[in-house]
Amino acid sequence: MGIFDKGVQKTKKSFFERISRAVAGKSKVDDDLLDAIEEALVASDMGVDTTLKIIDNLQDRVERDKYLSFDELMDMLRDEIASLLNIKDGETSDDAVIPFDFSVKPYVIMVVGVNGVGKTTTIGKLASSLRAQGKKVVLGAADTFRAAAVDQLTIWAERAGVDIVKQNMGSDPASVAYDTVRSAVAKDADVVIIDTAGRLHNRIDLMNELTKIRNVMRKVIPDAPHEVLLVLDGSTGQNAFQQAKEFSRATDVTALAVTKLDGSAKGGVVIGIVDQFRIPIKFVGIGEGVDDLKVFDKKEFVQSLFSKDDFKK
Is 25 strand, coil or helix? Predict the structure, then answer.
């Protein structure tokens, strides 16, 4: 079983059930079948724009290739989605490698996102994974507004065996970030991960704070942060799209981590966000365990979604 089979199981079940019902008894593609595919894509929260792009391309390919079988239609659909994720035929995926440039030291990651998406947990799991690879990691507890945030990150730091820099509740988050990167430089750390306060994406004052944090870190490391990782809850569907849009406006988001895919039938949000925002997804959360934060392998994700072992006409 591939690592993403668990994460896309509910999406795949919902998706293929809808299509299988529509294709039953048919020997060729008609408007009803294409409508059913469109409905299935929208239901998986792939987004209207991305769905229409796929359907338009499918219609063109059906007219050109004269589709006859259900398997061929699934192959076409898989190819369209692979194309949106920029997977080339014959490409050997190296996405399973932790996607950071460790030639930069320390490599500074600022993690952003709203409350409840699994941001602090994602940081803890990422720190644990990096520590297991022999990297020296320092965490910065710059979420000084939420009562349990610092305590939660401290528990993760102890569990992962990494250092943490923290201050009292209500302290200036930018001050914590500054102290963290300065400490990381002094300790010759490989990676710095800064936790920021979960904020509503429509609160301009809180979003502006991200700029302040970034600016103070640059007093120590001029090109910090090297990564701005936005954490999104995959089960929220279209709300995740809105968050991606607003955070991209407020700060230079460079990568995404999508959590809670295993509990949702809305895994299509992964494809829609990549297509609409052209921001790479680097991690997906597919469970509660410390090892359930996975590097996002595009090819394996598509293969898991379209494996034919579980779904037959």
Answer: coil
Cα(297)–Cα(17) distance, rounded to whole angstroms?
25
DSSP secondary structure code for residue 221 in this structure: S
Query: Rounded to two decimals, what is the model's pTM?
Result: 0.85
Contacts of 223 (CB under 8 A, 6+ apart): 104
Peptide bond into 106 cis (omega under 30): yes
Strands 191-196 and 293-295: unpaired
CA separation for the pair 191, 128 (Å, rounded) = 12
| Distance linking the first and last C-alpha atoms of the chain | 22
The CA distance from 213 to 172, in Å, is 9
Residue recorded with tokens 């299935």: 40
Q: What is the DSSP string of 84-95?
A: HTTPPTTPPP-T
Take residue 139 and report the two structure tokens written for it.
Answer: 């965490």
Task: List the one residue out of 79, 34, 80 whose CA is nearest residue 53.
Answer: 80
What DSSP assignment string belongs to 100-112?
A: --TTSSSEEEEEE
Q: What is the tens place of the pLDDT at every residue in 131-151? A: 999 999 999 999 988 878 899
pLDDT surpasses 50 at 1: no
List pLDDT tens digits, range 235-289. Answer: 777 788 888 888 887 788 999 998 887 655 677 788 888 888 888 889 988 777 7
Counting beta carbons within 10 angstroms of the beta carbon of residue 302, is it exposed (0 to 12), middle (13 to 18) or buried (19 or more)?
buried
